Amino acid sequence: MKNTHYNSSNSIFFKRLLLVAIMALASCNSNEKTEAANTAETETTEDTDMITITENQFSAGNMEVGKVTMQPFNTIVKANGMFAVPPENQADVSAYFAGYVKNISLLPGDPVKKGQTLFTIENPEYVQVQQDFLEAKGRLNYLKSDYERQKELIADNVTSKKNFLKAESEYTVTLAQFQSLKKRLSLMNINPNTLSGENIRSVISVPSPLTGYATTINATKGMYLNPSDVAVTVTNTDDLHIELKIFEKDLPMVKEGQFINVRLQNDMNKVYQGKVHLVNKAINAQDRTVAIHGDLVNESDVKLFAPGMYIEGEILTTTSEHPALPVEAVANIDNDYFVLVKENGTTFKRVLVKVGATNNGFIQIINANDFKGDSEFLTKGAFNLITE
Q1: What is the value of pTM for the model shown?
Q2: Secretion signal: which residues (predicted)?
Q3: CA distance 83 to 167
Q4: Residue 271 DSSP SS3
Q5: How much is the pLDDT for 16?
C-alpha cells in the first residue's frame, strides 16, 4: 500500500515538472520570436532609406555623382511691372484740322514707316487755306517791290513818310500772313513750294511720325475727326524696356547695373535676363513705390514681347556664397527635402536636409556641416528614386 502511494506521488511530481519545463521552453521560444520580429522590423525600417542602383541603371539614367560646393546666391528684391517703350517711341496721331476720314486701310499690328500715309481726310475749308496762301504770295511780291522803292525814295526825300510807312505796314502784315499760311500748309502735308492754282485739293494725307506698328486704330471711313481726336497710335518697339515698381523700403538695395530675372505671369518657368538702367529718385505718394527702368540683356528677346505685357521681376542685389547642391539632387516630399548620400559602391542613403535659396540651378544646403567633407551625393536622377 505504501509503495503504491509513493509511486502515485512520484508520478504527479514528474508530470508537474514536465509541465513547468514545457512552459519555460514555450516562453523562451516566444521571446526569441519577438526579438527576431523586432530585429526584422528594425532592419526593414532601416532598409527603406537605403537604395541600391545597378551599374546599368546608373548609366542608362545618365545619373551623376557630385559633392557640396560653394555657390553664389543673391539677395533679391521682388517687383511687379510691365514692358513699355520710351515716350518718344509712341505717337498718338491726329489730324491737325477737322474733317471727314476719306480713306483708311490699317489694321492693328500693321507695320508702318515714317512718312507713310496712315489715312486721308477731307474738308472744303482746306481749299480756302490754299487759296489764301496763293493770294498772299501774289500780293507779297508786289508789296515787297513797293516797300523797297518807297525806302529808296524816302532816303532821297522824294516821297512822304506817310507813303513809306503805309508801304512798310502792308508788306509786313502780308509777309506775316504768308508765313502763317505756309506753316499751316506744312501741317496739312501740302508742299507750299509746289502749290499752284492747278493742284489745289480738298483731301489731305496724314503721315506717320515714326516707324513702328499701328497699335490702336480709332478712326473709320466717313468718321468726322476733330483736331484733338486721336485717330491712330503708332508704337516703335525697338527700344522696349522693363518698368518695375519696388517698395520704398527696398530702394537702398537697388542700384543701376544690377541684373533682373524677368518672368511672364502666364509662364513663370521661363526666365529672361534684364539689367537695371535707371532708378527713379521720387517716391509715388499714393502707393509708396519707386519706378525702376531696365533693359533686356538679349536684344533678340525684344521681339517676343509687346508694350503693356505684365511681368514679375527679381532684382538681384547683394551676393554671398553658400554650400549648395544642384536643384536636381534635392526632392521635395510634402515640404520635406531629401537627398541621396553615397554609402558604398552604388548604394545610397536617403537623408533629410534643410534648404535655403535657389540660384542658377543650385539650391542652398543649410545643414551642410552635418555631412563629411568628402560625402558624395546623387546629383542627377535622384528625384525619381527618392519619390518612388
Answers
A1: 0.62
A2: 1-26
A3: 61
A4: strand
A5: 55
